[in-house]
């Protein structure tokens, strides 16, 4: 069984920083693309940033220059460094991973349970 567990969310003042982590564990054979999504109250879930197996990255226009996505393949861990946070960044942040499990050798998409980020003074 595969699990994605996020951590690092919390309450921060505007202009502050947070670092989110997402640890993938379980019967994992290979991890391909990974990404961070967020969902604010009353809004659809949206892609924040993604990173390919080779390290190529993409960002939503709203976070470019402020957020940095990275991954540690040896630890099966995904990160999101968030700087210059704004109230509009407030949302539940979800980790997503495209991976192949080692039991059935099937490739599927997995989601974490989400971590709340609140930007407020």
Task: Outline the secondary-structure elements.
Blueprint: E1 2-7, E2 10-12, E3 18-26, E4 28-39, E5 46-51, E6 57-59, E7 67-72, E8 77-82, E9 91-101, E10 107-111, E11 115-119
Briefly summarize what is shown:
This protein is mostly beta strands and 121 residues long.
Question: Could you walk me through the main structural features you see in this protein, from its secondary elements to its overall organization?
Answer:
- Strand 9 and strand 10 (107-111) form a beta hairpin.
- 0% of the residues lie in helices and 60% in strands.
- Strands 2, 4, 5, 6, 9, 10 and 11 form a seven-stranded mixed β-sheet that branches. A four-stranded antiparallel β-sheet has the order 1-3-8-7, with no helix packed on it.
- It contains no helices and eleven strands.
- The termini are far apart.
- By secondary structure, it is mostly beta strands.
